[in-house]
């Protein structure tokens, strides 16, 4: 629900989604997850929605045994908080960390670039076991929506800078319009 709302806030008829992406989506009779590799802007847009939304601000871990990390002794049972919010907005890691910008995931030639700081499903042993399935489902679901519909916001415009409260988009209304076949 939050993913869709965030997507609708940032993707509208006035957005600059490349024409080849829209055409590819319209003419693809059946959307599959394999299409994401041929649609780098769509893939980058979905990942940017996940980066901006960042559902989990902190991840809790616990040391299972005494260890040493970079000269620091860490006793067994020490609780760690991984700051996911910081990783998703670090200016050293992102081109435009404070804006919605799919170019955070694209190189100068428009090719998708993986960013190691993008870990919406966690990392390591405690990583979400359903990550591959979730990525496929999100791509097919959102691509199918934008293949068949255009969306417009209804009512007052959402003021910039006030898009999110507690990692959830502010309330707004949108209308889906059936996309005419070309």
From TrEMBL:
Annotated signal peptide: none
Cofactor: heme
Origin species: Cherax quadricarinatus
Keyword Iron: yes
Gene3D superfamilies: Cytochrome P450
GO biological process: organic acid metabolic process; xenobiotic metabolic process
Entry similarity comment: Belongs to the cytochrome P450 family.
Record: residues binding heme: 128
GO cellular component, one term: cytoplasm
Protein name: Cytochrome P450
Alphabetized PANTHER family for the sequence: CYTOCHROME P450 508A4-RELATED, CYTOCHROME P450 FAMILY
Transmembrane domains' residue ranges: 22-41
GO molecular-function terms, A-Z: heme binding; iron ion binding; oxidoreductase activity, acting on paired donors, with incorporation or reduction of molecular oxygen, reduced flavin or flavoprotein as one donor, and incorporation of one atom of oxygen
Keywords from the UniProt entry: Heme, Iron, Membrane, Metal-binding, Monooxygenase, Oxidoreductase, Transmembrane, Transmembrane helix
């Amino acid at each position: 629900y939050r993913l869709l709302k965030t997507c609708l806030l940032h993707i509208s008829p006035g957005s600059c989604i490349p024409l080849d992406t829209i055409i590819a989506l319209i003419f693809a009779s059946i959307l599959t997850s394999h299409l994401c590799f041929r649609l780098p802007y769509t893939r980058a847009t979905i990942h940017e929605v996940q980066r901006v939304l960042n559902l989990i601000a902190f991840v809790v871990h616990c040391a299972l045994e005494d260890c040493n990390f970079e000269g620091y002794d860490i006793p067994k049972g020490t609780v760690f908080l991984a700051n996911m919010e910081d990783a998703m907005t670090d200016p050293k890691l992102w081109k435009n960390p404070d804006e919605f910008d799919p170019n955070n995931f694209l190189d100068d030639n428009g090719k998708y670039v993986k960013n190691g700081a993008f870990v919406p499903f966690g990392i390591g042993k405690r990583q979400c076991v359903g990550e591959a399935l979730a990525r496929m489902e999100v791509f097919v679901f959102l691509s199918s929506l934008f293949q068949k519909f255009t969306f417009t916001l209804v009512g007052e415009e959402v003021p910039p800078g006030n898009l999110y409260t507690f990692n959830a988009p502010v309330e707004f209304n949108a209308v889906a319009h059936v996309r005419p076949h070309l």
